[in-house]
Amino acid sequence: MKHELDKAPFSFLPELAVENLMSHFSSETIKKDTILLVQEISSIEKFLVLSQGSAQYYFEQNNEKTLQGRLKEGDNFGGISILLNDAVALRTLKVLEDSVFLSLDADIFLKTCAEFEEFKAFFTNALGALMLNKSYAGIIARQIKDREFNLPFFNQPISAIFRPNIVTCPHDATINEAAQKMAKNSSSSIFIKDEKGNVDAIITDADLRNSAIASKLDLELPVSTIVSSPVVSVPADAQVFEAFITMIGEDKNHLAVCSKANDIIGTISDKDLIAAQANSTYLLIKTIQSAKNVNQLENIHSKMALMLLDPIRNGANPEYITRLITTISDAILDKVIEFSIAKLGSPPCKFAFMIMGSEGREEQTLISDQDNGIIYEDLQNDSDKEYASAYFGKLAELVCDQLNTAGYKFCDGECMAKNPKWCQSLLSWKKYFHNWIYQGSPEDLLHSSIFFDFKGVWGDLELTDQLKSFLLNSVEKRAGFLRHLTENALHFKPPIGLFGKLVVESKGEHKDSFNLKWGMQPIVDLARIYSLKHGIVQTNTLTRLFRLYTKNVFTNKQYIDLVQSYNYVMHLRFLRQITTIVDEEKQPDNYINPNNLSYLDNAMLKEVFKKIEQLQGKLKSEFIGTA
Questions:
Q1: Taking CA 251 as the corner, what is the angle to CA 173 and CA 142, rounded to the nearest 5 degrees?
Q2: Which of 201, 283, 433, 606 is disulfide-compatible with 192, CB 3.0–4.6 A?
């Protein structure tokens, strides 16, 4: 162990401190192909140092692994996540061969960071270097960890629903023998063991159907002919939510379940998840992914509200709710674009599909409309330009129409790709952004508040990365733009009067109510303006606030006030939307009557809006110059 602690960051510690730490480390043997940590899901309880073996870390998005690297003996993992991301894994960690890790409890690690500044600086400096990578910067602090997260289904441990019986056979067993053994044990999968008795592959009922029976293979062939490898696993004490995300991300319908000693003790399948919650979002996503045509997606968005009814009413963290909504929306969009390209043929050049507004911020609620666009690469030849324009115009029309069929209604302001104005080349988008920043008319500022929260979700995302860089560089050169944006943002005042009374509509359909969306709009605007100033590429409001907090833009109290205020109002929005859908049998809205709120909710809302007003004062002082 002493050898591993001779190098950085431990070399920054006094010798006595290193000796004290040695007594706190424990050794853990991890088997090959174990996924120790899952990006943005796993909570990191221990700081790891690789003592023997090798492991791979990566970030997976759009079925592609990026930000990859390997741990070699003596390398560490998890420090940045523990110190700066609320102990939520930033990247997935997969063991490539049987390995030995030295582990240090996160609390001891944090205590060491607090005591020794140079030791802590090793990790903060490493983060600073990594943040120069735009892809890495885009995944930092995706969620605020909520220890009170309460999703009755997703929050239960996998151990509550997995199948503990294990069926195994050797590689040289025949396909028929494996099938007979599965049938005898009423199992939908069988693990395959190597010569040393270690599990290194799996066969599922789907493998038998698709690879053996459908292909009319000789059933006396060895099972190695149709095995799936490697085996993807999850720990038994992990939450169902982790199994759900792993199945979706890895495109697997069976996972191995492992004990704390990393021994396989059972399996969990997609059917187990479906049986455990008949109305699960997992079932909905699998339904979306298996759709053969757009008619099978018709109004599928409406099913989502009923599935989220219990989590919302049980007080689930709004960030987890919006994340689930985003996952479902992404699955629908993927399928719709797939259908559209299959109909039109391959695109003539590189392109990306963008989403904007609340969708681009990953803050969609149960009110769904479209804010999207298409960006494609710049072409030199006039005929190529003309063909690309025609192709992407047709693609945009198909995609937007099919999203409407799925339940994502057309944008009233026509901020959609099917509007030719928002289906353009990279150069055209840059011209739009330049004009909005330098002209600053009311319409320009309105466009900025929608389009500057853009996010590439399909296609060649290098195009959206280039546009994001152009945006941040342009804002940096035109400081006066942020003043105009602030002046526009300050028009949105929290609905609270001079004497602390909530201000409501005096007439019309929503008489005696106020719009919760506009009540939280100042937080969204504040996060956007400060993020543009500080070059933050993320669009999600909570992620922006966290990044700004790490840059000391907000004090600890201001940051906590903003996050708590945002989550509280968002939770009320979800409750109101569920009420309109289920109880009132109407389209969801954000209007709430204060008389229908409890005394406590009324008091909390007033306090939230007062805090927002104070932070608007900070915004006004810094960007306009008067408090």
A1: 140
A2: 201
